[in-house]
Amino acid sequence: MLSPQFEIRHLRYVVAAADHGSFRQAAGALGIQESAVSRRIRDLEDRLGTPLFIRSPGGVKLTIAGEKFVQRGRKALSEIRMARTEAFAIGRGSTGHLQIGIFSSLASGFLSNLIATFGGAHPDIKLTFADGNPAEHLAAIRQHQLDVAFLTGTCAQPGCVCQQLWSERVFAVLPSDHPQAAKPVVRFSDLRHETYIVSEVAPGEEIHDYLVQRLAALGGHPEIHQHGVGRDNLMRLVALGRGLTVTSEATTAAQFPGVVFCPIEGEILPFSAVWSPKNGNPALAALLDLAQSMADLAEQPAFSFQFLSQGSSDACDSLVQKA
After folding, report:
1. What is the CATH number of the domain that holds 141?
2. Is 266 found in the same domain as 160?
3. What b/e sequence results for 201-228 when a residue is b if at least 16 CB atoms lie within 10 Å of its CB, and e otherwise?
4. Do the Cβ atoms of 163 and 273 come closer than 8 Å?
5. Residue 137 and residue 61 share a domain
6. What is the CATH number of the domain that holds 86?
7. Domain end: 51, 69, 91, which one?
8. pLDDT for 17-55, tens place per residue?
9. pTM score, two decimals?
10. Is 82 found in the same domain as 21?
């Protein structure tokens, strides 16, 4: 049985001889000795048990068996070239597929800029996205169903690598006629007696727990209603006076009639990339390199929970530790 390398060499010699009609010219095109071409083709013919060429003083001509061999041989060489090219591109991270879990809005901010910049630099890498809560994303990462997830928090997770990249302010979402809506900054203490609404889908559960911890720390007993709606309809419910909610800074780039976004004093959420150390996807390495470079260029100081009040720190921790 011929080795794969030897078989490929045989194919090239035969195809070259067929193209040039001469062992001598084929050898010249391949940059080897004519005797090497002649000997290797003769070895192949002996192994196949049939001649591939009719030899004459004027050159060589394919037999019927040779014609069939060359026809399939060309296809095989073409497939080998394409496989090599694709493997090389994937190895360099210039093509491939990335599956990304998101917990933040893509309306604006660091994550939006990261995806736009990466997509422009690597147009041949397919990107697919999935919303979800931290527990779902972390499970998918461990099972290699996601390459990376961008989540709130900085806590280490078993079987995962976590790298903080950016932080966002937390905003209260108020109806435009709310008494606090005209203020440049609001405090949770000013909103502790309000009714709040959250979605039943991600990130509603995490926002619910965040509100409970922050408002309970102020001595309040928050009234929080869950609704089976997405973000857009949740914003509409705020505009209709059904309650307040909170969101991260990236969401505030979107426009919702009848709604005002007000930053909450002292409330900041860190965001991190989380991935499996066993994931060898070169496209993932390219994305993480770009993300770290963008974080460094932004000159954001390393986020520390010590800059937050204890209640806010615990709330941030809970968003990832729940997973």
Report:
1. 3.40.190.290
2. yes
3. bbbbbbbbbbbbbbbebeebebebeebe
4. yes
5. no
6. 1.10.10.10
7. 91
8. 998 999 999 888 888 898 888 988 998 888 888 999 999
9. 0.61
10. yes
Domain closes at, from 91, 110, 136: 91
For residue 87, give the amino acid letter.
Answer: A
Between CA 205 and CA 171 the distance in angstroms is 17
Classify 144 in phi/psi space as left (phi over 0), alpha (psi -120 to 50) or beta. left
pLDDT computed for residue 141 by the predictor: 93
Q: pLDDT (tens digit, 9 = 90+) per residue, 84-127?
A: 766 665 555 556 899 999 876 776 789 999 999 999 988 989 99
pLDDT digits (tens, 9 = 90+) for 234-280: 999 999 999 999 999 988 988 899 999 999 999 998 899 999 999 98
Q: Which stretches of 37-194 are assigned E, i.e. beta strand?
A: 53-56, 59-62, 96-102, 125-131, 148-152, 161-175
Residues of the domain holding 303? 99-321
Q: Does residue 179 sit in the same domain as residue 247?
A: yes
87-98 residues labelled b (16+ CB within 10 A) or e (exposed):
eeebeebbbbeb
Query: Would you list the DSSP string of 69-83?
Result: HHHHHHHHHHHHHHH
Mean pLDDT of 162-188: 93
DSSP class of 32? S
Query: Sign of dihedral through CA atoms 53, 56, 57, 58?
Result: negative
